[in-house]
Amino acid sequence: MPELPEVEVVRRGIEQWATNAQIIAVEVLDPRSLRRHTGGPENFMARLTGQRLAEGKRRGKYLWIPIDEGYSAIVVHLGMSGQMLVSEPEIPNQKHLKIRITYTTGQRLQELRFVDQRIFGGLYLDTLVPTEDHPGELIPSTVAHIGRDPLDEHFDTEEIFQKLRRRKSSLKRALLDQSLSSGIGNIYADEALYLAKLHYARPTETLTRKEVSRVYQAAEQVMRLALAQGGTSFDALYVNVNGESGYFDRSLNVYGRAGEACYRCLDAGEETLITRRKFMNRSSYYCPRCQPVPRRARW
After folding, report:
1. Which of the residues 11, 59, 61, 202 is marked catalytic?
2. CB 285 within 8 A of CB 261
3. pTM
């Protein structure tokens, strides 16, 4: 599933090609991609036609484009395989094209196409509401419960530390909890934990303030590196608005490297193999030497 860097890459593409564009037509080819929109396809098309697109916004993995003079927004949920592509009208339809939004930026017509092979994603319209901690900031009502992400200028590590100390959870479970902090998925959680030299089963109530700061700084670092490389693409589904794949997967330290040598240990003259263990119906990758199992591991 796309994580924060992949969604931010898409947001930046929409910002570059569609900000301040006016919608002149909307076509829904598959109503299933509008199942989160309560008004149905006709309502969606009528409300969008004639609207002007503002600069795209994001919180964690959630992306939205304000319309209606900032009172509403198109919320984009990419799901497992959703893509937002900027296309010229003459380009043939993609095989799994679900929604087409035709817009103009002056004399030029372009299309914002939502393509989704597995149909877990979709678009919907939502009302923008003020955030609790910064009332001047607006967010879709359905995203308001999502925590800020480590790239957010208002991200508060001290607040996260206080919440973690009150929890009875493992560190990786907390990192993946989108209501606590958003945008960190399985790949970047493993990479951040590796950089911070912390094991994923560490009980959250035992974490020090410095350790919490270290792991979230590591998450920010790894996601900024991924952003610089266009995100992580393990298959052709994760692409930017031009259909191009990112290549951060070539820079991963632990994720997907089970049985291979830890780079950090090699630099120290040791040869420790990356370990893979099942975790929450997924996998966790870590270095047993750099990230020793805690005495009170919470699996």
Report:
1. 61
2. no
3. 0.89
